[in-house]
Amino acid sequence: MGLSTHVLDTMHGCPAAGMTVSLYTTQGEVATLVKTFSLNADGRNPDGPLYDNTSLRKGTYRLVFDVSGYFKAKGVQLPEPNFLNRVALDFGVAHEDQHYHVPLLVSPWSYSTYRGS
């Protein structure tokens, strides 16, 4: 299945529909933008996997989630500066033939992630 992501809004108890996410490939400190997309009603990329098994390559990647933009759009009053702006997750892919699912559970004040299935 390649690489996928899913975002859940833990403040409201729902998928983070409309959140903007950017995917990068990384090499050291250099990040190259692959694509930017808005999450669908289920909190996922509307086009399906970010990479399928045939296009996923061994290497390092970054997903950047626009947390403050999402919560501001939902009408949440955030302090200035807000606690979380964008959440960047750097991760590695060691096995091209495996599924890498990168979920994010997020509120304006906290987040967690893990390698999902």
Strand and helix layout:
Elements (H helix, E strand, L loop, with lengths): L2 E7 L4 E2 L4 E8 L2 E9 L20 E8 H7 L12 E8 L6 E7 L4 E3 L4
Parallel strand pairs: 1-7
Antiparallel strand pairs: 1-2, 3-4, 3-5, 5-6, 7-8
Question: Which key phrases capture this entry?
Answer:
Immunoglobulin-like; 6% helix; 4-stranded antiparallel sheet; mainly beta; globular
Short description:
The chain has one helix at about 65-75; strands at about 5-10, 15, 20-25, 30-40, 60-65, 85-95, 100-105, 110-115. It is mostly beta strands.
The count of strands amounts to 8
Low-pLDDT regions = none
Q: Helix segment count?
A: 1
Order of helices and strands: EEEEEHEEE
> How many angstroms separate the termini?
10 Å
CATH 4th-level superfamily: Transthyretin/hydroxyisourate hydrolase domain
| Rg, Cα atoms, Å | 14 Å
Q: Characterize the overall form.
A: globular
- Order of strands across the main sheet: 2-1-7-8
**Average pLDDT level:** 96
Give a short account of the largest sheet: 4 strands, mixed
CATH class: Mainly Beta
What is the CATH architecture annotation?
Sandwich
Beta fraction: 35-45%
**Helix share bin:** under 10%
Secondary structural class: mainly beta
Total individual domains:
1
User: What is the CATH fold-level name?
Assistant: Immunoglobulin-like
